[in-house]
Amino acid sequence: MKQEITIVKIGGNVVDDASTLEKVLQEFSQISGPKVLVHGGGKIASDLSVKLGIQPKMVEGRRITDEESLKVVMMAYGGLVNKGIVAQLQAMGCNALGLTGADANIIPAHKRNSGEIDYGYVGDFNIEDIDTARLQFLINGELTPVFCALTHDQQGSMLNTNADTLASGLAISLAKHYHPKLVYCFEKQGVLLDSEDDATLIRELNYLHYQQLKDDGIIHNGMIPKLDNAFAARDKGVKVVIKHALELSKPAGTVLA
Amino acid sequence: MKQEITIVKIGGNVVDDASTLEKVLQEFSQISGPKVLVHGGGKIASDLSVKLGIQPKMVEGRRITDEESLKVVMMAYGGLVNKGIVAQLQAMGCNALGLTGADANIIPAHKRNSGEIDYGYVGDFNIEDIDTARLQFLINGELTPVFCALTHDQQGSMLNTNADTLASGLAISLAKHYHPKLVYCFEKQGVLLDSEDDATLIRELNYLHYQQLKDDGIIHNGMIPKLDNAFAARDKGVKVVIKHALELSKPAGTVLA
């Protein structure tokens, strides 16, 4: 019988605030059973870029990860944020192992091939390429993988990758060995009809309803890629919840139907 | 019967030069049998400090790792250098796993307790605290650990640690399960009587001879802590070689007798 596994994605706003991050990690450390943490980088990479005088490079309105920007995300996500989280989880008794997709070759990827725009060092991966056996080996060794959103091109370079997509991909691929539960944590109570009003929380959201809310302009901006990733996982049998980071241990948020 | 394991430490000068680093990693990737890489950080951390306007903090002539400097080494060693090496090794067919001492709690440490000077976030560890069973678990999983010189205080903070000491400590602790061979690689041919003349290479060096060369001022500066670490490992039965980074695959350098 397959065991349950919890994949928690924490967003940039959680990572940016030391006190929130500590509370969330405390709750995460207490989740029983196998678990995986995926974190975004928040403003740390942008702040570091500014301090280093690296200008964001845009082509046709899209942000490009050039070589200098790649170094910044490697430092910010792979070093500062990831290792900071690992040290904190260790202090909470959770045997964390910080990973990028390059480590143990768990998430081999390739540079985004978009045809028209060269996004630079941005990585996309095929879910079927994720080495779930390797991940299971680490988890069976009572380790808790902590992923930052970096993958690699298999040719010697790291690649910047979307953290929501990485979390969703890991959850889908882990369904081979486990019953995955994917929890997207952020600074809101879940999917809201009015993004400024927590009382408008949608407790259960199905795909048709989501499409309708998107068409009506009620769900917009950053929530769309997040929900697309969430529904991609839901579609493959993953349980998905979108909730406030400080409600990790509570039955709260928006459940995808 | 115990298997041989090779622990290679590459110094800052190797890490700083992209072309040298690539050649050394190529040779490292071809070492057969279990192996571990330990790398220093080189000038990358100092350069980053300068760019970020962080002044090196000195107390009584000793460098202090304050909170800002700790962030810099976490970014430079744990992020940029470590993940860059992992991506390169993966491209060479070596299944590298980037680690700090906090990851999987392999090297629990504590802040340096020197009595008089507070060195800040500088870590010392007891060799007997290294979790060699965990390390063996990863190595048995056909992974190649790549350590940067960071440990953690078990209270939520990473600590800056000397890379030579870390390599020596790992080699000594791995003697429980393997026959360790420790290779210190740097930009010289080995231990030289005249640091500017490769022809003065000492092919075999014993402890008494080392003490004498130290007393005579022939071996000095940075070589002393390196050799102290090297002899500490030799004393525990570890084979130790000090050689040029580009001679990794050749029977060259100074062997400790």
UniProtKB/TrEMBL annotation, chains A, B:
Q: Which family does it belong to?
A: Belongs to the acetylglutamate kinase family. ArgB subfamily.
Give the positions of the site Transition state stabilizer. K9, K226
Q: Does the keyword Transferase apply?
A: yes
Question: What exactly does this protein do?
Answer: Catalyzes the ATP-dependent phosphorylation of N-acetyl-L-glutamate.
Whether Kinase counts among this entry's keywords is yes
Q: Which Gene3D superfamilies match?
A: Acetylglutamate kinase-like (3.40.1160.10)
Q: Which InterPro entries match?
A: AceGlu_kinase-like_sf, AcgluKinase_fam, ArgB, Asp/Glu/Uridylate_kinase
Query: According to the entry, what is the taxonomic lineage of the organism?
Result: Bacteria, Pseudomonadati, Bacteroidota, Cytophagia, Cytophagales
Q: What is this protein called?
A: Acetylglutamate kinase
Keywords assigned by UniProt? Amino-acid biosynthesis, Arginine biosynthesis, ATP-binding, Cytoplasm, Kinase, Nucleotide-binding, Transferase
Question: What is the top EC class of this enzyme, as a single word?
Answer: transferase
Residue ranges of the Aspartate/glutamate/uridylate kinase domain? 5-243
Output the GO biological process annotations, alphabetical, semicolon-separated.
L-arginine biosynthetic process via ornithine
NCBIfam families, alphabetized? argB
Give the enzyme's EC designation: 2.7.2.8
Q: Which organism is it from?
A: Fulvivirga imtechensis AK7
